[in-house]
Structures are given as C-alpha cells and as structure tokens.
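Reply to dn_fold:

You asked what the input looked like. This is it:
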Amino acid sequence: MSLRNLKELTIIAKEAFSKTFLVAKSLCFLHVINTHVFTVASLYGPSMLPTFNLTGDWALAERFSHKLGKVGAGDIVILKSPVEPRKIMTKRVMGVEGDSVTYVVEPKNSDRTETIVVPKGHIWVEGDNIYNSKDSRNFGAVPYGLLRGKMLWKIWPPKDFGYIGKKEQNS
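and this is what came back:
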C-alpha cells in the first residue's frame, strides 16, 4: 500500500468517524428530548372515545409538568398501568390528592354512585368512554409516580390537529 493510498484512507476514515459521531450525538439528543421533554404517543382503543378515535390518533405529550405537580382535574395524561406495568394508558384526571370524586360504579348496569377522597400521592383517572374503560373505577387511585406525561396537542389525523385542553368537570 502506498503512502498516497494510506493518506486517502485516513481522510475517508476521519470523515466516516465524524459523520458517525454526529449521528450518535443526534440520537442521544432525541433520546433525552423523548424521555424528559416531549414524546409522541400513539393512541388506540375505545376508552377515550370521543376525544380520541379507536385507532390511529397521535398526540404530543410533554413530560415535565407532572414532575412539577402541574397536573389537575380535566387534564389528559399518559401513565403506566397499575395492573399491567408494561402497558401505557391514556386517561383523563378526575381528581388529585384530597379531591372528592363521585363516580358511577357500574355504568352498564346501574346508576349507583360512590364518592371517594383521593389519597395523598395519588390521582383518580377515568376514560372519557365510561362504558368501555379500565380505569380508577376498576383499580382505584393511581400513584402519582406512574404518570409519564400530559397531553398537549392532537397531531394525527390532520383534520383533528389542535390543542387538547382541559375538559370542564361537572360540579
């Protein structure tokens, strides 16, 4: 191998290393953003009808307000399931610690309601479609530590693009 070929090979190797390092830095940056700042959530299932469709909705969620205690009744949150830890759920917050929450126990079968006070360090979550949702009515109040983010914007499908604000709670 000649000296000229060695120099060319060195230049190519340096450029390849530089590009690889740039890609690695970009991927690390995206990981930090996705883990600590914003994430895109793919939503499916009947529990949040009519707010979200059965399949194919995407929403942008921010991942810091729940760490600052800025989640309240009416917010839509993403959280780890308390009964299936590998599953991520999307639900609406109905009450935070200290709030009294009245809920229909079995909406398919009766109008019987119960009232609970949300314990310290917990939130009460329900799906918007109370007839087909596994939520706090089934597994009780959810520890605040299971929260993973708060929904901000619905980004797909394009016709539904927009801010996801708080839903007014019935008093």
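DSSP finds two helices and ten strands in the chain.
Hope that clears it up.
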